[in-house]
Amino acid sequence: MAMPIFLLLLGFLAPISTLSSMVQDPKLVVQHVHRSINESRRNMGFLSCGTGNPIDDCWRCDKGWEKNRQRLADCAIGFGKHAIGGRDGKIYVVTDSKNDDPVNPKPGTLRYGVIQNEPLWIIFAHDMTIKLKEELMMNSFKTIDGRGADVHIAGGPCITIQYVTNIIIHGVNIHDCKQGGNADVRDSPDHYGWRTISDGDGISIFGGSHVWVDHCSLANCHDGLIDAIHGSTAITISNNYMTRHDKVMLLGHSDSLIQDKNMQVTIAFNHFGEGLVQRMPR
Ligand SMILES: *[C@@H]1O[C@H](CO)[C@@H](O)[C@H](O)[C@H]1NC(C)=O
């Protein structure tokens, strides 16, 4: 099926550089993206598994991808390319879609996996819908990999990537996200804290860096589908399918926030689908 492809590359070059994750020569990154797209297109053809999409061609041509899941971490392009997620850690399998406890998460739940300090590559034992009670506060070096299962995070608060790095979210359906808050939520094995009312985004990136969101479907959330604010940078948002939503994607929320002048985001191969209204992106 031919999908409309919208390719947009943003490289905001700032006069001051405070963030170590800032790429000094953004034009090189853009050039690299174009080169990998060109290479993938050259490898298309009859009896070839190539699609011309360099991210997909990087792992889908591997028949044993399910045994080599962590290879996906090396397939990103653009400013979020160096997000390794849980590439160097163990596989963690989510078996329990119910029983979300925001302060004392139980082993087997998604929340228990994402708060750990060690790197983890998180996969799902079977199809499931996870309705969270509060925001899912992610810790650094985590991949949420929905490949092989039909996974929905829906109907409650959704994903928050706050002041952490190296996050990959792939192949998950994120929709009907609600506000959470006025509650304690755990963000690591040794810390939980009080959360005020959240925006109700699908994925909220707040001071986060090295983040890659790929092949997710996102729809119908309370605020943004994917918002990146407060000094977030080194992000790639690719191959996502977005529908039925007002404020789709916000990159920086205030002109006076000086940190956001460093923001570097690649937005590529996304499908901005039916029922969207504004911020594609803003
Ligand atoms: C990619 O291919 C296009 C069209 O052939 C060409 O104009 C462009 O220079 C190529 N870019 C890179 C970085 O190789």
TrEMBL record:
It is an enzyme of class 4 (lyase). GO terms for biological process: pectin catabolic process. The keyword Ligase does not apply. Pathway: Glycan metabolism; pectin degradation; 2-dehydro-3-deoxy-D-gluconate from pectin: step 2/5. Residues 127-282 form the Pectate lyase domain. SUPFAM superfamilies: Pectin lyase-like (SSF51126). Gene3D superfamilies: Single-stranded right-handed beta-helix, Pectin lyase-like. Residues 1-18 form the signal peptide. Its EC number is 4.2.2.2. One of its GO terms (molecular function) is pectate lyase activity. Pfam families: Pectate_lyase_4. Binds 1 Ca(2+) ion. Required for its activity. It catalyses: Eliminative cleavage of (1->4)-alpha-D-galacturonan to give oligosaccharides with 4-deoxy-alpha-D-galact-4-enuronosyl groups at their non-reducing ends. Its cofactor is Ca(2+). Belongs to the polysaccharide lyase 1 family. This is Pectate lyase. It comes from Cynara cardunculus var. scolymus (Globe artichoke).
